[in-house]
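Task card 7
Instruction: Convert sequence to structure tokens.
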Amino acid sequence: MTNERFAGDSDGHLLGTTVRGFLVRLRVPGLLAHLPERVVWAVFVLVNGFVTIAVLAAIAMLCKTPFIFPSLGPTAFLFFFNPTSPAASPRNAVVGHAIGIACGYGALLVTGLENAPPTIVTGVHDPRILAAALSLSATGALMILLGVPHAPAGATTLIVSLGIISTPKHLLVIEAAVIALIIQAFVVNRFAGVPYPVWKARRTGDH
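Output:
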């Protein structure tokens, strides 16, 4: 199977490629002959998003750790909607979220909020404003400098700097959850025939 098959449409997305490959593997490609491709693809994203987040939520319940957090949602969407984009690569996801975690916790240390209750309890005050602004701006700048843009990491850094998840142990759990999500995305996309990268997305023209 060649990479040309996975060229995006005019919007730059891999419209239906993953779904088509998945249906062929399951020996039911005829569904695309009876239903609009976007509808089938939407159902595909619906099912995979549900299973992915449900598995992580179950792990969180069993381990009683924050193995599920808001920024995993947009990361999962990237993995199943546009899996061969650089932003959806394991490299960008792992490093991007790690940057977000580090910047978020660093902002807490700078503002002396590392042991403070979350914003939802105390409300917003000057040190918290500084922590949030500092964490998000630093995360964006570092992702650009290191060439690992991953937009959901911007939500991760705010989760930390706003005190929602802020203990060092739980910050490691966040990164573990990202890796677990990547493993699921790799299995699903490779099963569908999509050349989802092991680590880094191929650049245009690479062989």
